[in-house]
Structures are given as structure tokens and as C-alpha cells.
Amino acid sequence: MLPEIARGPATALAAILLACLPLTAPAAGTREPVEGDYTIRDFRYDDGKVGELRQHYTTLGTPRRNADGQVTNAVLIMHGTTGSGSGFLSERYAGVLFGEGELLDASRYYIVLTDAIGHGKSSRPSEGQASDFPNYTYDDMVRAQYRLLTEHLGVDHLRLVTGTSMGGMLSWVWGYTYPDYMDALMPLASLPVEIAGRNRMLRKMIIDAVKNDPGYKDGFYDEQPAGLREAMYPLIFMVSSPLQYQLEAPTREQSEARLEGLVQRYSGSMDANNLTYAFDASRFYNPAPHLQNITAPLLAINSADDQVNPPELRLLEEHIVNVPQGESVTLDITPLTRGHGTHSLPSVWGPYLARFLEQTAIPEEQNSRDASALTSPESSPWLEQAPAQYVARFETTEGLFRIAVKRELAPRGADRFYQLVKNGYYDGVHINRVVPGFIAQFGVHGEPEIQRLWKSRYIEDDPVAASNTRGSVAFAMTGPDTRSTQVYINTVDNARLDSSGFAPFGEVVEGMDVVDRLYGLYGENAGGGLRGGQQGPLETGGSEYIDREYPLLDFIVNARLE
């Protein structure tokens, strides 16, 4: 099945979920994060209280401004209930988005990770005010973030607003509260409706489990009340993934042991007041009456195994039509999804983000490379000989990898690959054949006319001078002298291909972990190999067909020579 897509007229939770995944150190290769605080002296809450509010934040990168002085590259990313901005610095998130050549490369974007009111290192009930803390709302959170950005960080415009779970809900609020402040919005794991039904019931269970405990003492407890542990049971249900829990705990004993471990782990990291305030902050949340005021393009992404926002409610599809430039996607359940926690796995939904960034690109981001040579296969660029050694840099929706080429290994193949990369052939091309334990292959052009021109522009074979070892790169072919544009990367040792004439011309020297993560659940169904004869629809339908039928396929955002 395919992800379900709905379009408008124009076309705990995060911290708990992150805790369900392996803990890692901050991602290698990301720009060094900078932390700071900004104290708003006169913040007025929705409940009428006025006082000092500390907003903690983390930034990566540097803001850039256009000729008018407006910031063009700022991205606001907001965490979920009980989480903090630091949660986005993990390898599974920052390691896929913020590093060199990645979709939100911090050398190109100014990333702002905020700790919302009541969370992380921002002002929160647990700091001594206990239950005297203001009864903050999501509207309070957004106004505080706006003041942090404008008054302290000097950000007068956002390229993208996004967030997970609660952060996704805050994205909707941002959209109608400050409609001219951003170029695009991408809420993850959220719905643009009032928190009601089972969702509110579960939140009320969490709150009541704490507050009904005599040890809570109206919020002025000396030690964490026992009710905090009881609150973990509905919370675990909210963030659970039935498929993954079944796989991880297939017996009664394993299930009960895992439950106890989760309860102990979660309750040990919580504060009772912080928890109850955080879950009650959504009590007035309801973007539905304001959706027509969201003028920026908006892409909402949910997953079908999300127990917080179950797809059978059809609420996202029902309301996205009221967003003038709104579109929604519900990802199918796969071995890679993690229920509500899918929101923190850009390795899954990265292709959607890449397409959305391209669709909403501002002038500074647009590709200025002249690709006219692609329509003139007889022109001089296609006669250029490659240097003896060179490196090709591939930015993909999964991250960056580099291929080092030695012309002596396969001269004709090295020359053709050099020409294709230099003239922009692979920009936007899908990595359509990913077979785990075998290869990752690409080279079918996204524009049918260009694909037609190049499909049979064959080069003669090279003798096989190097083996098809893991990481080596060679041209695909259907027989003698049929190499054209499609190449593959060996993800395991495939020496058996040597005798069939597949001649490697280079190898991946950086980013093999990225190649290993390329989306492979479509397998041979997404066109398969050249010999399989199943690539006709890809060739005639181009990127539009692939995006529609195989939307989670990773693709090459940009390829160039270094």
C-alpha cells in the first residue's frame, strides 16, 4: 500500500518516544550547537498572570539575510510534550538532517531548537513555584517563541516551521497566529482539531493519576508522588506501536518485563507538576476555526500506526481542505515506522521534506546550474575525458556520500560517469532499486524526454579490472556494450558479478552508512533491474509517477564534482 495523501485547494510525547529508541551522543558532523537563554520580563499568560519567563534555546548555523535585510534561512523546530530541543541533536535526527550535505545542513540553514514553556531548561513548575506556576497554553508557548526569535535572536522571518507531536500542533498555531512570518510549515504527528475523544481522555487519565494521589499535596509535594508512576500506563499506551511492541515482546514474560522497564525509565525522568501542566496545556488547542488564515504552504505528515492520532478518525483529511495551500500525508505501517515516534525519524519521511523544500524554494535556494547539455547528447561536454582521479559528491534525502573514481579501473565508465555528474544528469534522480543485501541503483532520469534521449546512448564495455566488493560502483547493463546512465553501489561483496562483465570504476569513500539506510522496502517493485524489464512506467512517467507510486524512495538532491 502507499501513503495516503490528501490535498487542500492548492494542491510525551516526543521525549517518551525518543526514549523508546537507542540513546546516542550528539551527531557527528553537525555544526556545533550553541545554547542560550532569554528572559522575557513582562510576559502575560492567557490565565492573566504576568511575570518573568525564561526561554531556553539551542541554535546551529548562522542566519543569512537577503538584500532587504530579512533573514532567509531560519528553521524553527519544536519538540513534543515533556521533551526539549536537545532531543533533536541525536544521531537519528540531527545525523540525518543537520550535517554536511543533508536536507537542513546547518552550514546553509540557521536551526533554532526551543524549549517550550514548562519544558527543558525554560521556566517550569518544578523550579520552585510548584502549582503557583501560570496555567500556560499552546498560545502562550507560540507567543513566547515569537518574542524569543524577534526580540533576542533577531529573526524576522522563518524559512520553515516544523515540530513533532506537541511541536506539530504548535506549528498549526504558528501558521494562523503569524501567517506572514514563514515560507512553509510542516507539522508532524498532529491533528488541527480540538483535543477530544480518546486523546483528551488519556491526557485526563495522566493528570488525574498524579493529582488524585494524596502524596501530590496540591503540587507542593516533598518527593515525587506515587501517582506519577500510575500516570505512565496511559502514556505508554499513547506512544506505543502495536507492531513493534509485538515484535519486541512476543511472550507474556517479555511483555511484562518490558512494561515494567518502561514505567521505571519514564517515571524516573519525570516531575509530577511538569507532567500535569504539560498535558493540560493543550486544553484550549483548536486550530480548526482558523485554518483558512494559514496562508503559507503546509505539509502535514502522520503515520497510520500512531495511537495518538489514529487514521480511522479521518480528521486530518477532513480539515486539510480548509488550508489554502495545505497537503497531508498518512504514512503506511512498515517495519520502519514506530507509531507516534515516527515523527522523529527523518530517515523515513525525508523524501517528503526534500520535495516540500523544493516546492517552496526561495530564490537563494534555486539551482542555477545550466543543464542544457542533457538535451544535446552529441555536444562537446560529452566528449570530455575524465581526470585520472576525481570525487563525485552526492547529496541525497538520506544524507551525503562521496564516490572516488580511478579512471584506470574502467576508462569509458569513468568518463561517462564524470560527464553525467558534471552536467547535472543525476540531480533529482531517484535511487529506485534498493535491494538490501545486494545493491542500490539509480540513473533513470525524472524527465521522460531526457530519459528517452539517454536510454540508448551506450558506451562500450571496459575490461573488469576490479572486483564488485562492498562499496564499489559500476554501471548496470543488459548485455555487452549496453552501459548508459544507470549505476549501482554494491552494499555487500558481489564478486559473482565480475564474471558477467560488470566493471567497477570507483568506490564509496564516505557515507556508506547513508547508502545502507536508503529506503529499500519497495525492493524490485520500484522498477527493478535493467534485465527485469519493469522500468517502463518509471521512464514514461518520470518523477511525477515515482513520487506518486513510490513516495518514500530516496533521491539525489544534488550531485557534483569536487
From TrEMBL:
The keyword Hydrolase applies. Keywords: Hydrolase, Signal, Transferase. Residues 1-27 form the signal peptide. It comes from the Bacteria. InterPro entries: AB_hydrolase_1 (IPR000073), AB_hydrolase_fold (IPR029058), Cyclophilin-like_dom_sf (IPR029000), Cyclophilin-type_PPIase_dom (IPR002130), HAT_MetX-like (IPR008220). GO terms for biological process: homoserine metabolic process; methionine biosynthetic process. One of its GO terms (molecular function) is homoserine O-acetyltransferase activity. Residues 399-518 form the PPIase cyclophilin-type domain. Pfam families: Abhydrolase_1, Pro_isomerase. Gene3D superfamilies: alpha/beta hydrolase (3.40.50.1820), Cyclophilin-like (2.40.100.10). PANTHER family: HOMOSERINE O-ACETYLTRANSFERASE. This is Alpha/beta fold hydrolase. It comes from Parahaliea maris.
